[in-house]
Each structure stands twice: as structure tokens, then as C-alpha cells.
Design brief:
- By secondary structure, the protein is α/β, with parallel strands linked by helices.
- The protein has two domains: about 210 residues, Aspartate Aminotransferase, domain 1 (Alpha-Beta Complex), CATH 3.90.1150; about 260 residues, Aspartate Aminotransferase, domain 2 (3-Layer(aba) Sandwich), CATH 3.40.640.10.
- The chain has 16 helices and twelve strands.
- A seven-stranded mixed β-sheet has the order 2-8-7-6-5-3-4, with helices on both faces. Strands 9-12-11 form a three-stranded antiparallel β-sheet.
- Helix 5 packs antiparallel against helix 13 and helix 6 runs parallel beside helix 13.
- The longest helix has 23 residues.
- The two termini are about 25 Å apart.
- The structure holds pyridoxal-5'-phosphate.
- The site of pyridoxal-5'-phosphate has 14 residues, from helix 7 and helix 8.
- The site of pyridoxal-5'-phosphate (PLP) has 14 residues, from helix 7 and helix 8.
- GO terms for molecular function: lyase activity; transaminase activity.
């Protein structure tokens, strides 16, 4: 382990407590104050993304971009309580609360117990504070239980008619597919599924074309297409289905737009008011690093130039504050959030995580996360070739911080579930520190069986050295398993 990393791991092992600040250097104290314990934001230059056919030149370019702000990210890394004996690269499944968020969580829990408080209300103050980081108003940000709960709110609240068609993809998560299937059985809707491409040979326009052509074909058959539902990014290949581009298709066909954005909060610095989708269901517990059982559901509650379509007819399905008023005339997110007595400390902790992200700068985090994943992709290309990538790397609109690839020297081994599981397990057990990654299964057009790709999440507690060690270890293991 290099010296910087050792220091960093030591800092992580003993995370700073606010009361320990007296022992810190003034520079470090000032940094922490700005970042976590005070308001204000840091104006920091975004990294420039590289685009080169030469993987090796591209990776060294990306590496030097990552190095530019090494000290800053080292301080950020020191704010988490992650165990030093593992490198956590499965944020796509679960994030980790930073110390400052853990502090709020426990203090609020203690205060609640000390005062025997209840949790009635709709958390309007917290929702308004969180909404600022997402480009919408407080009446458009609801706190949900997680992404899946947000997808249930969105899909099952729509006033469906029998025969309505929802166009979606074959790379969706059960969190979105489950309410969709309930709507099939309960309301008689139909689902039309588009098979998605994988790998680097695709662009944003590929998705516009795929959805637009399918909708036109359905309409040609006399079908009533009502909605589009898609993941941005998909949890399988990490491909960012481009929301802004797909919203052009939504508007051209006057559709309801439902985005499974499980991975968006905390990873991407999106302005949801400017994007204009009807529903975006995100997790609070993944990239946003809030507590478990938290989600952020953005619901369009006003007509903006980004989406002048009428607000869809929708009714709450999980609430204790039903408001009998027309859509747009009331705080729809309050209705969704308020359902009996809430776990207020949990949502205060989520709001604190959002505040921390706003203070660092959501764009800065997005740029760092994407630069890490672009660096990882180029390193994979150097070793395995571009054909090994399931995630696209060259169209900036399709990038996310999830990277998925085929690590096997015998490429067909990627259809062997057992082998993929062994690869994941050995990446943790055979190396020190071990790597926490996962495998994901998905359909590949023309393939005889499902592929079990290896998925890696890159986030603000990683650096270029982590990626170097990861790639070296994966190369060694794939050789040993050949
Ligand atoms: C695309 C996608 N949707 C939904 C979910 C479900 O997330 P949650 O546990 O927040 O409900 C996940 C979880 O990984 C996901 O990746």
C-alpha cells in the first residue's frame, strides 16, 4: 500500500468527530467546516473528460485529471467509516453513511426518544432544502422508502385504462417491473419491451430511435401508448439511458414519463426541473449515502417549458393525507411523504447527506465519479479489449459510474453463473484489501444464454490507485481462472 493510501486508510479507520476538531490543523478544520459542518459551497473546476481511441493515452490522461484534486478527495475519503480491509465498489447496491450523517442520525434518534416524540407531518422543511440540489421545488420532492417504493407510488397511482401500453426495456429492475406487472393484472395495461444493445458501439440517438420506432409501430397497430418507463442508468450494464433525449420522444408522443433513477441521487448532478420527466424514483441509500429505507421521488407538479404536457391523472396509493384537489393545485410530494408517523431521524439524516453533497458540489462529485469510471473502462480496454465492455465509454451522454464487463479470458465463461459468482467471491477473499463488487445477469441480443457481467461502482471514496489495484487483481484472477 502506498504512503498516501496508508494515511488515508488510517484516517478512515478513525473517522473524525466534531469534538476532535481542536486537534486538527487549521487547514483541515477549515475544510471540514466548509464541507460538512457549515453552509456555503466550494467552486471547483470540473475535470475534463477524455475521448481518445488510444486506451493507454486516454487512461494516462484520465489518471492525471484524477490526480489534480488528490488532496481534496483524500479529505473526503477520510469522512467515511468504511473498513480499511475492503475496497467497497458496490455502491450501486448500497452506499455508506458518512460520519456527519451518522452523527445526525444518532443525535436525532436520541432527541426523539428523550422527548418521546411522534413523527407526524410531511417534512416540508427538509423536502424544500433537498429540492434545491435537484432543480425542483419542495412540492415535487417526496421522501419514499427506497427506489422500489417510489416506483410503486408512481406507477400504481396513475389512472390506467385497459389496453394502455407502457413501453420499457429488457434491462429493467424488479423494483420497477413489479408495480408494472401489478398494473397489468389489476388495470389491464400492456407492456411492450425493447431489447437493449450492450457495449461501446452505441450512442444516445440509438435509444431515441429504439423508443420512437417501437412507439410508431405500436400506434400503427392501433395501440394506445400511454407511457415510457426506463432506467437511467440500467443497473445491469450501467448504460445511462439519456433522459433529456428520451424526453423528446415522450413529448413527441404526449406520453407519461417514468424514470427508474435508483442510481441518480448522489451520482449525477441532474436538474430535474429542466429534464421535465413526470416521475423519477431514486434511492437515498445508494450513491446519496443516506440511511437505509430512504428514497427520493421527484414528481412533476407544474408545467414548465421543459415539459408542457398536462400533468397526468394520478392518485396517491400510500398516504394518510389525501387532498381532494386537482393535480398541480396542492403539494403532491407532501401527500406521498406523509403516511402516519414517520421515522423523522432517518429523513433528517438523508437531508444532511444531501446538504453535504450540495456543499461539495454535485457536479464536482459527478465529474469525479465519471472520471473514475472512464479511467476504469480504459484500463479494462487496455487489458481485455473494448469487446469486453458491456458499458459504453465514448458517448458522454451514456456514461454512468457503474462499469460492467466480461473479465473472462474465455469469453463464453461469462454465461457461466457459477464462474461469475466465484470471480466475485475471490476478488474479496484472494486480495488484501479485498474488493467488494458484484455480478449482474442480463440478456444480450443474439446470445444463446444470459450474460453474467461483473459490475463495479466508482464513487467519492475511491481514487486512481484503487482502480489500478482493482484492474491488476482482476487480471491476475481472470488468468488464474482461465
Ligand atoms: C435500477 C434499479 N431500480 C431499483 C432498484 C431497487 O432499489 P431500492 O433498494 O432502493 O428499492 C435497484 C437496486 O439496485 C436498481 O438498481
Amino acid at each position: 500500500m502506498d504512503e498516501l493510501k496508508q494515511k488515508q486508510r488510517a484516517a478512515v479507520a478513525t473517522p473524525p468527530h466534531p469534538e476532535d476538531l481542536a486537534t486538527w490543523t487549521p487547514k483541515r478544520r477549515e475544510f471540514l467546516r466548509m464541507l460538512a459542518y457549515g453552509a456555503g459551497s466550494l467552486a471547483l473546476a470540473p475535470l475534463i473528460s477524455a475521448c481518445s481511441d488510444d486506451a493507454s493515452a486516454a487512461s494516462s490522461d484520465l489518471r492525471s485529471q484524477l490526480a489534480q484534486d488528490e488532496a481534496f478527495w483524500s479529505e473526503v475519503q477520510g469522512m467515511f467509516v468504511l473498513k480499511p480491509e475492503k475496497v467497497y465498489m458496490n455502491i450501486g447496491t448500497g452506499g455508506s453513511m458518512p460520519k456527519v450523517v451518522l452523527d445526525v442520525f444518532s443525535q436525532e434518534n436520541l432527541a426523539k426518544a428523550a422527548d418521546s416524540s411522534s413523527g407526524y407531518g410531511n417534512l416540508a422543511d427538509l423536502r424544500a432544502a433537498v429540492a434545491k440540489g435537484f432543480g425542483v421545488d419542495g412540492d415535487e420532492v417526496a421522501f419514499s422508502g427506497n427506489t422500489s417504493s417510489g416506483m410503486c407510488h408512481a406507477i400504481l397511482g396513475i389512472k390506467w385504462e385497459p389496453g394502455d401500453v407502457v413501453v420499457t426495456t429488457n434491462h429493467e429492475h424488479g423494483g420497477g417491473l413489479t408495480p408494472l406487472n401489478i398494473a397489468v393484472d389489476r388495470y389491464g395495461i400492456e407492456v411492450s419491451t425493447i431489447a437493449l444493445p450492450v457495449g461501446n458501439n452505441q450512442t444516445a440517438s440509438t435509444y431515441v430511435q429504439l423508443f420512437d420506432e417501437r412507439i410508431r409501430a405500436l400506434k400503427g397497430q392501433g395501440k394506445r401508448v400511454r407511457a415510457m418507463m426506463w432506467s437511467a442508468p440500467t443497473y445491469k450494464t450501467g448504460t445511462m439511458l439519456p433522459i433529456a433525449d428520451l424526453m423528446q420522444v415522450v413529448k413527441a408522443h404526449s406520453l407519461i414519463s417514468i424514470v427508474d433513477g435508483a442510481h441518480l441521487p448522489g451520482m449525477m448532478a441532474y436538474d430535474y426541473g429542466a429534464l421535465g420527466m413526470d416521475f423519477m424514483s431514486g434511492a437515498g441509500h445508494k450513491w446519496q449515502c443516506g440511511p437505509g429505507s430512504t428514497g427520493i421521488l421527484v414528481i412533476r407538479n407544474k408545467m414548465r417549458p421543459s415539459n408542457p404536457l398536462p400533468l397526468p391523472e394520478w392518485y396517491p396509493i400510500h398516504t394518510s393525507s389525501y387532498v381532494r384537489q386537482p393535480r398541480g393545485a396542492y403539494d403532491i410530494a407532501a401527500t406521498v411523504t406523509s403516511c402516519g408517523s414517520l421515522h423523522v431521524p432517518m429523513f433528517r439524516a438523508l437531508a444532511r447527506a444531501c446538504e453535504m453533497w450540495d456543499t461539495i458540489g454535485r457536479k464536482k462529485i459527478e465529474t469525479y465519479d465519471l472520471t473514475l469510471s472512464s479511467y476504469l473502462k480504459e484500463k479494462i480496454v487496455e487489458r481485455w479489449g473494448v469487446e469486453a465492455l458491456y458499458s459504453p465509454k465514448d458517448d458522454p451522454k451514456l456514461l454512468s459510474a457503474l462499469t460492467c464487463f466480461n473479465p473472462f479470458r474465455n469469453r463464453d465463461d461469462v454465461m457461466n453463473q457459477q464462474k461469475a459468482t466465484t470471480f466475485v467471491n475471490r476478488m474479496l477473499s484472494d486480495f488484501a484489501p479485498g474488493f467488494v463488487i458484484r455480478s449482474v445477469n442480463f440478456e444480450v441480443i443474439g446470445a444463446p444464454a444470459q450474460h453474467y457481467g461483473i459490475r463495479i461502482s466508482t464513487h467519492l471514496w475511491h481514487d486512481a490507485n484503487d482502480i489500478d489495484r482493482l484492474v491488476e487483481s482482476m487480471w491476475t484472477l481472470s488468468g488464474a481462472m482461465a
